[in-house]
Amino acid sequence: MAGLFAGIGGVELGLERALGNQVETLTFCEWWEPAQSVLRARFHGVPIEPDVREMKRLPEGTNLVTAGFPCTDLSQAGRTAGIGGVNSGLVVNVFRLLEDARHRGGALPTLLIENVPNMLALDRGKAMSYLISEIEALGYAWAYRVVDSRFTGVPQRRRRVILLASVDLDPRRILFADDAGDRSEDFREDMFGFYWTEGLRGLGWAQDAVPTLKGGSTVGIPSPPAVWVRDAAPGRRLVKPSVEDAEEMQGFDRGWTDVDHLSPRRNGPRWKLIGNAVTVGVSRWVGSRLNDPGEPVTDFRPWTPGSGSWPTAAAGQKGMIAVPESLSEFPMHADYSHLGDIIDTQNADALSLRGAKGFWSRLQRGNLGQYPGFRAAVQEHINDLEYALAG
């Protein structure tokens, strides 16, 4: 396989965990030096191309291309500039390289894309229509599905589109062969994750999980979520996961990004690397099904694109599109790691007095954070820190 927009190798690591020596990474393409440092440390000897725009061709023998192309212009947290944005527009180079592979007479590689769900709605569906038109022009059959990373057992509510396109297998047998349905009964009520940097329009509230880990601000300031620990001691009610906790909540080994000069605090490179990564267990699930395709567990109905959002799952070929009749965002229910299994709540950094006060101020100006006991816990946390500071 060839990993384009590779980040820290979440897709490739998951595929390797699923397929073992059946898969070999021939090359990475990644422009950001901190990410390159991680790739060099964790995938010894694999060459790294620094610029997809200057990449001439895929390595000989490539039969799988992975492309987690930048979501900066597709994410609701980004500039929503669409597929023509400066960063997301780089995906045209994926199609250029695939077209080159086809012209050279080899088998067209299978394509695996990961991106944010907002790509389905952006520009009234035009971004997704563009991607599908380019995929079909190459002769692919395709399928995609929105999945929630919690299905892999990690306590992070992270929704992502996984799209698979192939000329020699039916992608529906990979992405639609599993469905376990809702797993809310697995989530405890002792800890809740939220974003304390927000408070007017959204908290990213999650039970027994953190909301989607983010790359941080545009100037590299880390943006970890906070966790409300309901029965914690004074001063420990609101804590923040460490960068190693975040690595584990993305399915990596703890310390995966602890290479070379990368600090968890200096300009936040490790937080950004983790927040931009693909959850390892998601690609591991895809890899397991690539190794053992199944039959779709759902019926399909025809669907025609209009001037609006695309559905959360669909498949197609040669201009014909079908939508699953029923499919959840949880293909399976891997053993769940609760927040308390990952975060050491006794030693984790507490949310600072300044941070808690700023968050509390924003809460007062809106109607968010109304879960029973939460607002009182925020006020108590502030009181506890003020008391400790005074004493």
General description of the model:
Keywords: Methyltransferase, Restriction system, S-adenosyl-L-methionine, Transferase. Belongs to the class I-like SAM-binding methyltransferase superfamily. C5-methyltransferase family. This is DNA (cytosine-5-)-methyltransferase. The chain has helices spanning 10-19, 33-42, 92-103, 126-137, 172-175, 243-249, 269-275, 280-291, 339-342, 353-364, 374-390, and strands at residues 2-4, 27-29, 48-49, 64-67, 110-115, 141-148, 156-157, 159-166, 191-194, 206-207, 210-211, 226-229, 238-240, 300-302, 313-317, 320-324, 349-350. The protein has 391 residues and is of the alpha/beta class. It has a ten-stranded mixed β-sheet. The chain has a five-stranded antiparallel β-sheet with strand order 10-9-12-13-17. Strands 7-11 form a two-stranded parallel ribbon. It is 27% helix and 17% strand. α1 (10-19) runs parallel beside α8 (280-291) and α10 (353-364) runs antiparallel to α11 (374-390). The protein folds into two domains: 2-183 and 278-324, Vaccinia Virus protein VP39 (Rossmann fold, 3-Layer(aba) Sandwich); 184-255 and 339-390, no CATH class.
